[in-house]
Specification:
The complex is a heterodimer of chains A (294) and B (125). With 294 residues, chain A is an alpha+beta fold. Chain A folds into 2 domains: 139 residues, no CATH class; 127 residues, 60s Ribosomal Protein L30, Chain: A. Chain A is 68% helix and 11% strand. In chain A, helix 2 runs parallel beside helix 5 and helix 5 runs antiparallel to helix 7. The longest helix of chain A is centred in the middle third of the chain and has 97 residues. Chain A is rod-shaped. Chain B has one domain. Chain B contains 4 helices and no strands. In chain B, helix 2 runs antiparallel to helix 3, helix 2 packs parallel to helix 4 and helix 3 runs antiparallel to helix 4. Chain B is rod-shaped, with a radius of gyration of 27 Å. Classes of the chains: A alpha+beta (294), B mainly alpha (125). At the A-B interface, helix 5 of A face helix 4 of B.
C-alpha cells in the first residue's frame, strides 16, 4: 500500500478547501449561456445574447466576491433566464422569418395564379374574337350567297317577263315552259328555222342567256297529220335546230337536251286548223336551279 | 408640565413617527408587476413553458415582498430581479408560441392555395 506524505495530504486538503463550490444556479447559467451562444441566437439575436453574457459576467464577479451569497445566486439565476430569453427570442425571430417566407410564397403563388388566369382569359378572349370574326365571315358569306340567290331569282323573273312578250310562258312543275309556235319557226314539214323566226328566237336566246346556269330541255311537238315515225323524226330535227341555234347564240349546249315528242302530247284538238297549229310547237323548258344542279 | 406643553410634545412625537415612516424605502415592484400582467395578457397561462415562468415570477414577487416586510430590503430587491427575469421570459415564450402558430397557419394557407389551384407552381418552402 502506497503511503502519501502528510504534507501532500495537507496541500490537497487546502486546495480543495480553497476552491469554492460552484452553486447550482451559476452552473446552470454557464451551461445555458454556452448552449445559447452555440445556437441560432448567435446570428439571429446577437444583442440579446450579449446581454445574457453580461448578466453571466456579473454573476461570475459576484461569485468571486461572495461565492455563497444570495446576490450571487440571484444574479446567476437571472443570467440563466437571460440566456433562455435569448434562445426564445431567436426562436421568435426564426418563426417570424418562416412566416415571412410563407407569406411571400403565398403572394407569389397568388401572382402566379393571377398571371395564368389573365393569360387564359386573354387566350379565351382571342379565341372568342377569332370565333366571332369567323362567324362574321360566315355571316358575310351567307349574306353574299343570299344576295346572289335573290339576284338570280330577280334575273329569272325579269327574263320571264321579257319572254312573255315574245312567246307563251308558263310555270309548271318541271320548270318555266316557253312555247313557240311551230308555224312561226318552221315552214311546213321543214326543220330549218325561218329568217323571221331566227330574229324572234335570237331575242328569246338573249333572254335565256341571263340565266345560262340553268339547264334547258327543248321539246319538238307536231300535229297528228302524217305518220308517227315521220312526226317523231320531224319534231326531233326541229328540237335539234333550236338547240343548235341557242348554242350559236352562246348558250352552253351541254346544258341543252333536245327531244322529239312527235304528236304524242297535243295541247289542242287536231281536227281544226287552229288546233293543229297550236299542237305544232317547240317548248323550251327552263329547268329549276335545284334540278339543274343535280 | 402644563396641558399645552403636553400637547406640543405629543404632536412632535407624532411628527417624528411620521418622518420615520416616510424615510422607509418602499419595494419597487412596478416593473415586475407590469411584466407579470403583460405575460398574462399575452396568454402565458395557456402556454406550458410560459405558464411555468409566470408562476415562478409570481412566487418570486411574493417572496420579495415577504423579505421586504421582514426588513431584508437588499435580499428583497435581489429577489425582484428573479421575478422580473421570469416574467420577461414568460412574455417572450408567449410571443414565440403565437408567432409559431401564425407561421404554421401561413404555411397551411400556402398549401391550401396550391392544392386548390392547378395553376400554382413550385413546392412548399
Amino acid at each position: 500500500m502506497k503511503l502519501y506524505s502528510p504534507s501532500a495530504l495537507v496541500l490537497a486538503a487546502l486546495l480543495v478547501g480553497c476552491a469554492p463550490k460552484v452553486p447550482m444556479e451559476l452552473a446552470n447559467a454557464r451551461s445555458t449561456y454556452h448552449r445559447a451562444s452555440n445556437g441560432p441566437a448567435k446570428t439571429l439575436v446577437p444583442a440579446e445574447l450579449h446581454k445574457a453574457g453580461e448578466a453571466l459576467e456579473q454573476a461570475e464577479v459576484a461569485f468571486k466576491d461572495d461565492p455563497k451569497g444570495y446576490h450571487t445566486l440571484d444574479l446567476a439565476y437571472v443570467a440563466q433566464r437571460k440566456a433562455e430569453l435569448a434562445e426564445t427570442l431567436a426562436i421568435h425571430a426564426s418563426e417570424s422569418g418562416r412566416m415571412a417566407d410563407a407569406n411571400a410564397s403565398y403572394q407569389s403563388t397568388q401572382d402566379s395564379i393571377m398571371l395564368r388566369t389573365r393569360s387564359d382569359l386573354a387566350t379565351s378572349q382571342t379565341d372568342l374574337a377569332a370565333s366571332q370574326s369567323a362567324g362574321a365571315v360566315t355571316s358575310a358569306q351567307l349574306a353574299v350567297s343570299e344576295e346572289a340567290r335573290l339576284l338570280a331569282d330577280q334575273r329569272a323573273r325579269d327574263a320571264m317577263e321579257a319572254l312573255a312578250k315574245l312567246a307563251a310562258v308558263k310555270e309548271e312543275a318541271r320548270g318555266m315552259v316557253i312555247t313557240l309556235s311551230g308555224s312561226v319557226l318552221f315552214a311546213s314539214d321543214e326543220s330549218t328555222l325561218l329568217p323571221a323566226a331566227q330574229t324572234r328566237l335570237a331575242q328569246v336566246a338573249d333572254t335565256l342567256l341571263t340565266t345560262k346556269e340553268r339547264s334547258l330541255l327543248i321539246e319538238g311537238h307536231t300535229d297528228s297529220q302524217g305518220s308517227d315515225e315521220h312526226n317523231m323524226a320531224l319534231s326531233q330535227r326541229r328540237a335539234d335546230a333550236v338547240r343548235a341555234f341557242l348554242g350559236q347564240r352562246g348558250y352552253d349546249t351541254a346544258r341543252i337536251r333536245a327531244v322529239g315528242v312527235g304528236e304524242g302530247r297535243p295541247v289542242a284538238e287536231n281536227e281544226s286548223p287552229e288546233g293543229r297549229a297550236n299542237n305544232r310547237r317547240v317548248e323550251i323548258v327552263v329547268e329549276p336551279a335545284a334540278k339543274a344542279e343535280r | 408640565m402644563s396641558h399645552h406643553l403636553r400637547n406640543t410634545v405629543a404632536l412632535l412625537a407624532i411628527c417624528a413617527g411620521l418622518a420615520g415612516c416616510a424615510s422607509k424605502t418602499a419595494l419597487k415592484t412596478d416593473s415586475s408587476t407590469a411584466a407579470i400582467r403583460t405575460a398574462e395578457e399575452l396568454g402565458a397561462p395557456q402556454v406550458a413553458q410560459a405558464s411555468l415562468h409566470l408562476q415562478l415570477a409570481k412566487e418570486e414577487l411574493e417572496a420579495a415582498t415577504a423579505l421586504h416586510e421582514d426588513g431584508k430590503k437588499e435580499e428583497a430587491t435581489s429577489m425582484l430581479l428573479r421575478a422580473e427575469a421570469d416574467a420577461e421570459l414568460a412574455i417572450a415564450l408567449s410571443r414565440a408560441d403565437a408567432e409559431r402558430t401564425e407561421a404554421e397557419n401561413a404555411m397551411e394557407r400556402v398549401r391550401t392555395l396550391r392544392a386548390q389551384n392547378p395553376y400554382s407552381t413550385g413546392g412548399d418552402k
